[in-house]
Amino acid sequence: MNKANAPLPAAEILRRLSLNATTLRALAKRGLVKITERAVVRDPHAGEEFVLAPELVLNEEQTAAFAEIARAISSPENAKPILLHGVTGSGKTEIYLHAIRETLTRDRTAIVLVPEISLTPQTVERFKSRFAESQDTVAVLHSHLSEGERHDEWHKVHSGHARIAIGARSAVFAPLKNLGLIVVDEEHETSYKQEEAPRYHARDVAVVRAKIEKAVVLLGSATPSLESYYNALTKKYQLAILTQRVDNCQMPLIRVIDLRQAPRSARAPILSEKLRNAIGARIAKREQTILFLNRRGFSTSLLCSKCGKARECPNCSVALTFHRSMSRLNCHLCGHAAAVPKKCPECGQEALIYVGFGTEKVESFVAQIFPNAVVKRMDADSMSRKEAYRETLRAFRAGKIDILVGTQMIAKG
User: Which CATH architecture has domain 255-296+358-413?
Assistant: First the structure.
């Protein structure tokens, strides 16, 4: 202990010396140790380095869109909500960053909402790198933080140390002072709606809060919700459009394959022959593949082949999804879980079959077909550990993953 270069936490001293708190206080009374209180900030991104990244030069369309947003930020009292309708890869995030910089220069603060908690780490990485001049500029608010981290991040916002708050839907209530901008990324996503009490839609709360606080709300999407697009067409919202991808990148070639008619392998009936060949060609060239599927789990339902009855959630009356990794049936609406029965609860016959497929089954089949490829799954089940999403994303960027299978959380990867 004498060799310690800095004060040691009391808990560590008690553990090292097998003492209790009473003994420690007695030592303090005799002047042998000194007990002081010090605030410890629990930073969810402690130990990470964010190198200051320069602002990118906007193209012509981005410049025109940003000019409209900048005008609104300069006179927010009369500003309408702005719908930024841009195709995928058109650089909407770069416009968000420019808009936030414009807001900060006017001594105002900003909130950035993302639809999925899993998207927060990569959003934070990009924003902290852009605003790395101050470590406390960006705060993170979402339910996957520990209680201590959440308390400290919230306090950072409330005290005014943080000027940008990033998070999922609950971050719309961040107690930022002098709020100037709210960005709602992927505004069409249903995850912004909270079904349980208190029920609210974060996008709509953002619009109302911006009006109350005389701030600008920026809604971004490649596929806007019907109501937002209608509001833009009827001039209730401003509309800024981005029709081109940055750096003149071409839109991808889309091919629709009817699996009812396309030839398929018995080993992997869920993949068409053309898709298998395309994946194989990418692997041969040492390129990467992303397989997107909007269903997690192994099989979408457990069906009795005798009576035709599927196992349903008692609360929601929807088919339960089979998760092989957990060996149970789950409801993706309310979270109800049930053991896998050996017999049909309706007719008592041992004729249960698994129907449909999700990301878990796709991952299994793909790994069998391409045994030499590194296959990784990215969904709410496989990314439950706090650092899992960030680690997987970095591994994919580094080329350590050949095939990435996942739900919508891979869409922004």
Answer: 3-Layer(aba) Sandwich (3.40)
CB 82 within 8 Å of CB 221? no
Which regions of the chain are under pLDDT 50? none
H or E element that contains 376: strand 375-378
The Cα 18–Cα 34 span in angstroms is: 18
Within 8 A by CB and 6+ apart from 134, the residues are none
**Tally of helices (H runs) and strands (E runs) in the chain:** 11, 17
Q: What are the tokens at 306?
A: 């005798």
Look at residue 276 in the predicted model and tell me its pLDDT.
92
Q: Which two tokens stand for residue 160?
A: 């005014």
User: What is the pTM (predicted TM-score) of this model?
Assistant: 0.76
Full strand arrangement of the beta sheet holding 289-292: 289-292, 403-406, 375-378
Beta bridge partners of 338: 329
Q: 215 with 181: CB under 8 angstroms?
A: yes
Please tell me the distance from the alpha carbon of residue 67 to that of residue 95, in angstroms, as a whole number: 10
- CATH, range 60-248: 3.40.50.300
Give the helix/strand (H/E) hosting 375.
strand 375-378
User: Residue 244 gets which letter from DSSP?
Assistant: S
Q: What pLDDT score does 115 carry?
A: 87
Amino acid identity at 100: I
